[in-house]
Structure formats: structure tokens, C-alpha cells
Write a structure and sequence with these properties.
By secondary structure, the protein is α/β, with parallel strands linked by helices. Helices cover about 45% and strands about 10% of the residues. It contains 10 helices and 6 strands. Helix 9 links the parallel strand 4 and strand 5. The longest helix is centred in the N-terminal third of the chain and has 16 residues, at about 40-55. The N and C termini lie close together (about 10 Å).
Length: about 230
């Protein structure tokens, strides 16, 4: 990959920069604990990925509403109904989801060479809290709330390109999700990096499984930063 051909790198946030499994799994374990169910972590992430994709389909709703829907579907899957206080558990946990240990330093290194962009399936106010944890300024941030759609919609990527005023060939997109990111970005002619993070569900994580071919695969963001900065 010729890293000199890009002027900006865009990132998915949750799952790529932020360790969302650290927030999702405790909530789902709590929800299942009162129902005599004991799915392992890989199964919990599989269910989350399917339920989230289903909730994000159709007319746009806020990500808070999406997460409420995920809780509802999960409760129904394990044979129960969520109590009122349980409906908001996933959404309330988002501000505490931590960056991966390599995220901040890798972003700072990449910032010395490129504009950095976030393209995330999130609400503006939820990302505003996460943004404080990431250690760099992004230019710009594209949320699902702004796009009024959720990846894998092409609209989110097209909005990023329009905002940056860049052709697809000048943007590199790095993400953990093949389904949400690699497939749609590639279809627009955007080069992609699959950040294949360690996961309780290896190779997929907390997203819907999909087939797609990234231009580059790395195990973490530190590896990408090292490759770029040594180019």
C-alpha cells in the first residue's frame, strides 16, 4: 500500500478505537443472569451483532433507541422481558467504554501525517464524551445522527468525502467491521484497512458477519501507525 497517496485516514470508532466489548459484555451478562441462561461471550457478541444490525435497518432512529431495541430483542431471545431500568443499560454504558491501550498514541502518530476522521454509528452527544478519551482532534467527525443513516449505508461515507472535499482515492478507511465498513467503503473506491482486533469472537467481534476483502489487515492500530510512519 502506498501510504503517500492518502491525505486523510478515517476510522470507525467503536470496536476499532474504543473497546466496546468491554462495555457490551458486562451488560449482556447481567441481563442473562436472571433467566437461567449462560451464553458464552462469543455467543453474546454474535447476538449483539445481529440485533444491532436489525435495529439499525429501516428509517433512522437515534443510537440510544437502537441500543434500547437491542436490549428488548436480547430479553426476548432469552425468554424474558426487560425491566424499565434495564432498557437503558447499554446506552448508559457507552461513556465508560475505554480506548484500546494502543489507540491514543497511534492516533497521535498518524495525526502528524494525515487529517484524521471518524465515521461512526453513534449519536453526537455520546461521541462527545468518547472524544475526550481519544487524545486528538478529528477533522471532521461524521456520526449516524448527522448522516441520518447507519453504516453499511454508503451515505455515511459519501458525507465524509463531501465534507473533506476529497476523491475516494485520497481517503484510507480503517475499521474492525467488515460488514459496516470494509464492504461499503471498498464499493466506493476507498482503500480499506481491516483492524482485526483480538475478540471473544475472533475475526468478527460484536458485528454481523460478512464477506469482504480489505486492502490491508493489521492486528491493531499501533501496527498501522508503525507501518505508516516507517513508509
Amino acid at each position: 500500500m502506498d501510504f503517500s497517496s492518502f491525505s486523510a485516514i478515517s476510522f470507525d470508532c467503536y470496536g476499532t478505537l474504543i473497546d466496546w466489548e468491554a462495555g457490551i459484555l458486562p451488560v449482556l451478562r447481567t441481563l442473562q443472569s436472571g433467566h437461567g441462561v449462560n451464553f458464552d461471550d462469543a455467543k453474546l457478541l454474535e447476538l449483539y451483532g445481529e440485533f444491532e444490525a436489525e435495529e439499525e435497518a429501516g428509517p433512522y432512529r437515534s443510537y440510544r433507541e437502537v441500543l434500547h431495541g437491542v436490549v428488548q430483542r436480547f430479553a426476548e431471545r432469552i425468554g424474558g422481558r426487560p425491566q424499565a431500568h434495564e432498557m437503558g443499560l447499554l446506552a448508559e454504558s457507552v461513556p465508560s467504554w475505554p480506548p484500546f491501550p494502543d489507540t491514543v498514541e497511534a492516533l497521535r502518530r498518524l495525526k502528524t501525517r494525515y487529517k484524521l476522521v471518524v465515521i461512526s454509528n453513534i449519536d453526537d452527544d455520546l461521541f462527545a464524551v468518547t472524544r475526550k478519551l481519544l487524545g486528538v482532534e478529528f477533522d471532521p467527525v461524521i456520526t449516524a445522527q448527522q448522516a441520518r443513516s447507519y453504516k453499511p449505508s454508503l451515505n455515511n461515507f459519501q458525507l465524509a468525502l463531501k465534507t473533506l472535499q476529497l476523491p475516494p482515492a485520497r481517503l484510507l478507511h480503517a475499521a474492525q467491521s467488515i460488514y459496516h465498513d470494509v464492504v461499503p467503503a471498498s464499493s466506493l473506491g476507498i482503500s480499506t484497512v481491516w483492524v482485526n482486533r483480538k475478540s471473544a469472537r475472533p475475526g468478527v467481534g460484536a458485528v454481523r458477519a460478512a464477506m469482504g476483502k480489505p486492502d490491508l489487515e493489521v492486528p491493531d492500530l499501533a501496527t498501522l501507525a508503525e507501518m505508516v510512519c516507517n513508509w
